[in-house]
Design goal:
With 152 residues, this protein is an alpha+beta fold. It has one domain: Immunoglobulin-like (Sandwich), CATH 2.60.40. It contains three helices and eight strands, in the order H-E-E-E-E-E-E-H-E-E-H. Strands 2, 3, 5, 6 and 7 form a five-stranded antiparallel sheet that branches. The protein has a three-stranded mixed sheet with strand order 4-1-8, with no helix packed on it.
Length: 152
């Protein structure tokens, strides 16, 4: 009898989890969605990356999961789409008005990061990565957002 009861648990434990789970930190508020695009080198910093996920934003850390991703070298570009228009809104000189970030917390200094700074290898087994968004306008993160908007 105990073997029959354990069989469903063992089967569930053997099922693979998501291919890729990404923790996006420093999401300043719950407005809109957080989107990630997983890109091979030839699509990095361009529209049309083959894999993407979008979920409702959660202040602090938003977690996104991709069920399948073939082995390879990739970079992730993320943004907090606060107004849910599916675009990174930009201001003067192309400065993002919404939070943006890249895998490996690749630096953004006067231009987007280079592929080598954002690239990670995925071997086909479940993998978890994390990085932070950066905001150039308005509150720089959840603590500053809350201080400026105490009632939500």
């Amino acid at each position: 009898m105990p073997i029959v009861l354990l069989a469903p648990l063992l089967l569930a434990a053997a099922l693979p989890g998501p291919a890729l789970t990404v923790d996006i930190g420093n999401v300043r508020n719950a407005r809109g969605r957080v989107r990630i695009d997983i890109c091979p080198k030839d699509r990095f910093l361009a529209d049309g990356c083959p894999w993407h996920v979008s979920v409702p934003a959660h202040p602090g850390t938003t977690v996104l999961s991709l069920p399948a991703l073939p082995p390879g070298d990739y970079a992730i570009q993320a943004f907090h789409d606060e107004n849910a228009n599916d675009n990174v809104d930009r201001g003067l000189f192309g400065i993002p008005l919404e939070g943006v970030g890249f895998s490996r917390d690749a630096k953004i200094v006067f231009s987007p990061p280079k592929w080598a700074d954002a690239m990670f290898h995925h071997d086909g087994t479940p993998q978890r990565l994390g990085f932070h968004l950066r905001y150039w306008t308005g509150p720089s993160g959840p603590a500053e957002w809350k201080a400026r908007h105490p009632r939500g």
